[in-house]
């Protein structure tokens, strides 16, 4: 069922440490299973997407977001003839390096690390699966295939890429990742735009009336009202989001099929040498940018959200300073690391929101939440 341009596990560029093939699973399935059983994956359940975990039981977390990305990615991959298992593995691992408190925590940790190599969550996700997970006797990390590692690393500076070997080469050569990796990037965008609308309205920080100014959403709200007269409340919201999400999926499928037909890559490696081929149409991409701008202004920068994220930033900054000053407050493996600042960043990045809050209170005596 795979298309010629799909990645194939039997043609993988391999693992950093050679291993005997599994008898019942292909290499991409094996990657997926290792990710699901990792410590970093379990921590995602208590890491912020937009709203902190304790702010409500029904808001998305990094884990539920990750599962939604995986679902969307597999659905599109099956239709396009791409390798579903690789898409799922990339999707499940793409946020493993996220800090507590979402992007606010990442920004704060990057500021703390500015003189020590910086911090970026995509690079940290790769670091988690390459080095920080400790599950196997013969190597650090999860020893994933090149194709999964390539997909995890969505963004990377040329300076950092130069030290990553083969997986960083495309950032130096300006080529593309696999089509499966390209697909995960768009599935991520589709998922968070849709669920941030839902969470924003559920929180009371957004209203359906506000969203009427966003054509990408309101078009499907009007359709839902037309097809279901009298529909209101959460059912109307869910139906509008469902239609919007479905239309974005169909747009990606149609636009990508046209691009594949135009370029006709004969293999996964041939597709890497071309322009991005998994993409939205120009009109859908433009409407998506309007929606992202709306969410940034009205949700991510809402005073209530900013107040919470500012507290999260303070927690991260205070923890960083405390651990650098007193490394013995960390577990021994981190405290004795040769690069103390990177070890502190690794330790903080691996924390859940609630653990970071508890540690901050223990070390500073302050209660910020």
Automatic annotation (TrEMBL):
Which residue windows are coiled coil?
none
Residue numbers spanned by region Disordered: 1-31
- Check the record and name the CDD domains matching this protein: HDc (cd00077)
Provide the GO biological process annotations: dGTP catabolic process
Highest taxon in the source lineage: Bacteria
InterPro entries, per database record = dGTPase, dGTPase-like, dNTPase_2, HD/PDEase_dom, HD_domain, PHydrolase_assoc_dom
**Keywords in alphabetical order:** Hydrolase
Where in this chain does the record put each HD domain?
Answer: 62-193
Q: Which Pfam families match?
A: HD, HD_assoc
Q: Which Gene3D superfamilies match?
A: Hypothetical protein af1432 (1.10.3210.10)
- GO terms, molecular function: dGTPase activity
Where does this protein have compositionally biased stretches of type Basic and acidic residues? 10-19
Q: Which family does it belong to?
A: Belongs to the dGTPase family. Type 2 subfamily.
Protein name stated in the entry = Deoxyguanosinetriphosphate triphosphohydrolase-like protein
Recorded source organism is Caldimonas brevitalea
